[in-house]
Amino acid sequence: MSGLAWRCIRFAGGCSAALVGALVVAATAFAQPRSFVVAPDGTDRAVGTLEAPLRTLDAAVQRVKPGDTIELRAGTYDGAIIRTPGTEDAWITLRAHANERAVIQGTGRGPAIYFYHRTCDEEAPKGTVCQPMYWEVRGLEVRGSADGQEEGYAVKIDTPRVRLVDNDLCCSRADVVKLVRTADDVEILHNRIHHPAAKIGDNAQGVDIVGADRTRVAFNHVHDIPSIGLYAKGNSRNTVFEFNRVERVWSNAIMLGQETDDDRLVDGPYETYDGEIRDNVVSEVGWACLATSSSLRARIHHNTCWNTGQLTHGSVLVSNESEIHQGGTDVSITNNLIVGGSKLPFIRITSDAMSDARTLVIDRNVYAMRSGAPGLFSWEDKRVEKVGLERWREATGLDRHSVVMPSVEGWFVDTASLQPKAGGPGWDAKLGDDGQPLKAGCPPRAKVGARAACPVEGVGPRP
Predict the structure, then answer these.
(1) Distance (Å, rounded) from C-alpha 140 to C-alpha 147?
(2) Are residues 277 and 344 in the same domain?
(3) What is the spatial order of strands in the sheet that 272-273 belongs to?
């Protein structure tokens, strides 16, 4: 409120009622959220309206306040470092104007979009609270820099409370999306994540989560990745990968845990805690469709894998890749439809993969090979190597209710959608006792394999 308005209210006799009202309205209007428009033909000296747009994203980022919106007109823009936070009740939104095609192109060696705050820096004093950003990026194309190096991400997030929704994210020299330890409560929803500009085997994942907690990665199309598609490690907690379509991935498609430098395991010995991989459709994968390494309480269920494990490991991998050699504990892999693409095993469990083998549950899965060849299973510690289902059960006690099918005929509506066909093996009631009751408002669902999302499992309101 302006000083004049305050004096008028405090000393009522000094101003007319009409003037007081006008000043209060003007002050209230000034405080309302506003939109900053950016266009290729704008100027950074402008006010940022549709009629007088700004020229650069960086200029808009410097001006926004909680509740504001940045709208990009059609065109290509340099990236930006985002440091200004919104608030829990007033998020800041960066989006395309009226669904126009707006492209953010990274330049130099860093990320195209970088969410950073000094309170989240590794060098911040001990006990400093990392500032949540409360930003949403929606409906944009974000491309990593052609000159990017190990920091050449399309999007890097160092801060809590960021949402990426309905974007096309690609072309980074490193990971397409990178989250570090301080990037808690991030949501990555309905994006296309694809084609890092890297060679096969380079360190260029689709989504790489290192130490962040409560990340939700859902409804994305992830494809043509030269390394791992989606994974979390480094003490990450409560990661959820759900309802994603992942295809044409050279390494593992979706993974909980992997290998983190031991000095960065600062919050316990396990790579991930309480992570979940569910209701994903995965196809054409060189390594495992589903993988977990050195994780506590990993839950992997109701996924569909097609033509996976083509090059190494097999379709499902349980391993110990920890630098401190921590085996996994309390791991459950159930109700998945697994179609292998080679002579490699459906399930491969490496040496010392589990800290306690009794806490591993693998059951109620349906397996088949595209070629019709008999399916095989391997567990190094049990000294079983590429054995059939009956020998596997006898040696390990696993897959008591699982089924190996002679072919995949009748499994799916079609091999493009890979949705379980009604009446097919995915609907076998004997495989449905997974202890997960149907949520209210959900239609009937297949017992095994990826299921369609219920309305209550959609994007939902901001957290």
Answers:
(1) 21
(2) yes
(3) 236-237, 272-273, 295-296
**Tokens, residue 292:** 């977990």
Same domain as 55, residue 5:
no
Query: Where do we find the tokens 């960065």?
Result: 264
- Write down the pLDDT at residue 421: 81
The candidate with the shortest Cα–Cα distance to 230, out of 268, 165, 179, 273, is 179
Number of domain units in the chain:
3
More confident position, 374 or 369: 369
Asked, for residue 283, whether it belongs to a domain, the answer is: yes
Class of residue 323 by CB neighbours under 10 A (exposed 0-12, middle 13-18, buried 19+): middle
Q: pLDDT tens digits for 393-425? A: 999 999 999 999 988 888 888 888 888 788 888
Cβ atoms of 174 and 151 closer than 8 Å: yes
Let me know whether 93 and 77 are in one domain. yes
pLDDT at 233 over 80: yes
pLDDT of residue 122: 84
**pTM exceeds 0.85 for this model:** yes
What pLDDT does residue 439 have?
Answer: 67
Shared-domain flag, residues 283 and 151? no
Using CA atoms, how far apart are residues 297 and 42, in angstroms rounded to an integer? 52
pLDDT range class, residue 372, cuts 50, 70, 90: low
Residue 39 in contact with residue 73, Cβ under 8 Å? Answer: yes
Residue 133 sits in the same domain as residue 206: no
Residue 93 belongs to domain spanning: 33-171
What residues does 183 pair with on adjacent strands? Answer: none
Residue 434 and residue 287 in one domain: yes
DSSP bridge partners of 223: 194, 247
Please check the confidence at residue 248 and state whether its pLDDT lies above 50: yes
What's the token pair of residue 220?
Answer: 């994305």
Higher local confidence (pLDDT), 44 or 415: 44
Residues 266-289 have pLDDT tens digits of 889 999 999 999 999 999 999 999
In degrees rounded to 5, what are phi and psi of residue 18? -65, -40
Domain assignment of residue 193, yes or no: no
In a domain, 187, yes or no: no
Is residue 446 located within the same domain as residue 302?
yes
**Backbone phi, then psi, for 272, in 5-degree steps?**
-140, 155
pLDDT at 8 over 90: no
The CA-atom distances, in angstroms, between 205 and each of 9, 81, 199 are 60, 21, 11
- The verdict on 277 and 238 lying in the same domain is yes
Alpha helices, DSSP H, located in 194-255: none
Round to whole Å and give the CA distance between 229 and 205: 6
On whether residue 24 sits in a domain, the answer given is: yes
